Amino acid sequence: MTQDELDRVQTLALKIRRDVLEMLLPLGAGHLGGSFSIADLMALLYGKELAYKADDPTWDGRDRVVLSKGHAGPAWYAALAESGFFPRQDLFTLNQPHTHLPSHPDRLKTPGVDMTTGSLGQGCSTAAGIAMALKLKGNDAWTYLIVGDGELNEGQCWEAFEFIAARGLNRLIVLVDDNKKQLDGYTADVMNPFDIAAKMSAFGFETQKVNGQDVVALDNAIQAAKASGKPSAIVMDTVKGAGVPYFEQLMDNHSVKFDAKATEAAREAIDHINAKLEGRA
Amino acid sequence: MFQLVDDRSQKGGELRAAVVQTLQAAMETNKQVVALEADLGGASGFTKIAKSHPNQFVQCGIAEADMMGIAAGMSSEGFVPFCHTFGPFATRRAFDQIYLSGAYAGNTVNIYGSDPGFTVAANGGTHTTYEDVALMRTIPGVVVCDAADAVQMAWIVNEFLGLGTGVHYVRGNRKNVRPVYAEGSTFELGRGNVVRPGTDVLVIAAGQLVSDALDAAEELAEKGVSVEVVDMFCIKPLDTELVCKEAVGKKAVVTFENHNVIGGLGEAVAATLCEAGVCVSFRRHGVSERFGQVGPADFLQQEYRLTAKDLVATIEGLFADHGHGHEEPVSDGR
């Protein structure tokens, strides 16, 4: 990754976190934790890695993204808006009547959203179908499937992983957001996933573990996955709420309720990020 | 336009063969058509498609919910997926995937749920579905069909492939079914077929029970009761116009389905008649408050009181009840 690319990705990551805070704050609550843990991934994808045309979101040559952990929609919307898919002010219609930005992604409503998700596990199968279709069409586009670690409780994920590996869908990359928490607590307590990377390897994936908050490491992992020629999985070691210490440390940060303290932390974080962005400009 | 066969006592074609041959023919001209299986290709005949059109066949393994999601994903890339598995796995087991990844997401998923109701035979109660129509009918925009015979099944499958976005479900026996329609018959989704005119009683049937309804009508004709039979192969969208038009002036209306009386053809017709203010003696003849079980199909058809004789008994019971109106339904199967 060049310095320019790194600057662009890091700037986008800042914008995504700021936008998510600005989107959720007026609503009083929202899926902050899981949006922040994938903010760096989204910044890398839209800042560097993906082939896309923001003014032609269904361009056949685009790389496909399926956010199977659909509750992290706000992070995706921020990445899409900051990448020109729709005006940034649309972000502030999140969850409002007739919005094109519903809490969970909807392919019929949002430019740049390739698949409707939200019922956990289902995005794994639809992404498998997309990758299968691309293979049959001889289309070399990549499919990025973003899955939550808690989501892996769903058996459907593993059915889809079997299919992806067995059919040799080697232009699909599974990105597991291993942020260690799900709604009811730590994944280790709710339903111990044990070694996710070992499980993905056992399912037939070329598997890597990487710091999911380190865009350089993540980029290297994606390049290695692409070079492997095999169905690939990247288990991203992430922090739920990553990027703002208050939200990282907040235990119940799946859907954050903006009480007085959280509101203050969010406002401070927005100011802090804006100052950083000004420094970068 | 449809034409009836002259001789309904023939063996008739296999419905699965009709599905496979229709898909194979469509695949010749439309490379977007893909067949998906969940490891029942030997049972459905989809293995023939795997051989004839290997690039248009997707083996999903024993993972029906995953199959529906894969179909939805392929649809989003322009393919026209057609999935098969046994009826209960095609509906009960994979319902949320059909609903969300399919219909809600604006994708196309065509589904053949095989061996509904008593046609399950040796696979028994675990593989029986008397609820598939009820479940599928609730999906916005869905098309739900029950094929009367192989000719109609072939037409339905071909029609589904051209429908575009949405979930389209057809149920039907895999094996030979007595013929109702002559080769070359065509139909219209959302339009029922009057397959026998009559003046006293209106029987609205679906699936292979249309044949049994015709048998019952013949038996009752000998007893001086004139029975009209409608093949309501398309249960959703329902031909409400035909239901009301044909019900008016009849002494009774009876629905006849290889399905639970809850949520199926009978309730759809009942709601139509009630809401249109058509007041007529009415019975839903189907299965009530029972699970499936194992046995030969003809045994199961008798056990669940789904034979022509059972329909005759229901109609005769209605005439005996006529004017009283508060008797328990004779069709509850208990």
UniProtKB/TrEMBL annotation, chain A:
Pfam families: Transketolase_N. The keyword RNA-binding does not apply. Keywords: Thiamine pyrophosphate. The keyword Lipid biosynthesis does not apply. Its cofactor is thiamine diphosphate. Residues 17-269 form the Transketolase N-terminal domain. InterPro entries: THDP-binding (IPR029061), Transketolase_N (IPR005474). Belongs to the transketolase family. This is Transketolase. It comes from Kribbibacterium absianum. The lineage of its organism: Bacteria, Bacillati, Actinomycetota, Coriobacteriia, Coriobacteriales.
UniProtKB/TrEMBL annotation, chain B:
CDD domains: TPP_PYR_DXS_TK_like (cd07033). Residues 13-179 form the Transketolase-like pyrimidine-binding domain. Pfam families: Transket_pyr, Transketolase_C. Gene3D superfamilies: 3.40.50.920, 3.40.50.970. This is Transketolase C-terminal domain-containing protein. It comes from Kribbibacterium absianum.
